[in-house]
Amino acid sequence: ILQPLTEFCRDLQLTLVAADEPHDTLTSVPFYLITTNPKLVMIRLHGRNREGWDHPDKEWRKKRTLYRYSSRELQGLATLIQNLAPAPQEICVIFNNNSGKDAAPNALELQRILHLEFKGLAPHDPEQLNLL
Question: CB burial class (10 A; 0-12, 13-18, 19+) of residue 123?
Fold first, then answer.
């Protein structure tokens, strides 16, 4: 099933999003990191909280993304990212493991592992606006 999908995406230069989540549930999708668009690869990291993923109550969103990636897991993801072939122009990693405030620390750790440094992203430091 993945081969026809990847060929379709490549033909149309669509980005096939790789989603990391528990992969042994009926509702999960496989984590399949591949370059289907030479301009962009997109990765969504939801966390691997198997128990939370299947939680049926009204708080399911909060429980599903309650997960902190370990350094070992982030190192494994970094290796997969570095070994992408062909390498795309841009790789976008979105940490969606945010219900326990783990997204930002995990993103900073992955940035450190990959030796990434960003400069000049904003024209000036952000400031609090007084709207009232």
Answer: exposed
Hey, which residues does 20 pair with through a beta bridge?
Answer: 45
Structure confidence by residue, pLDDT tens digits, 90-116? 999 999 998 899 999 999 999 999 999
pTM, rounded to two decimals: 0.84
Quick check: 67 and 49 in contact, CB under 8 A? yes
The CATH number of residue 26's host domain is: 3.20.20.410
- Is 59 in a helix, a strand, or coil? coil
- 120 is a domain residue: no
Range of the domain at 8: 2-113
15 and 9 Cβ atoms separated by less than 8 Å:
yes
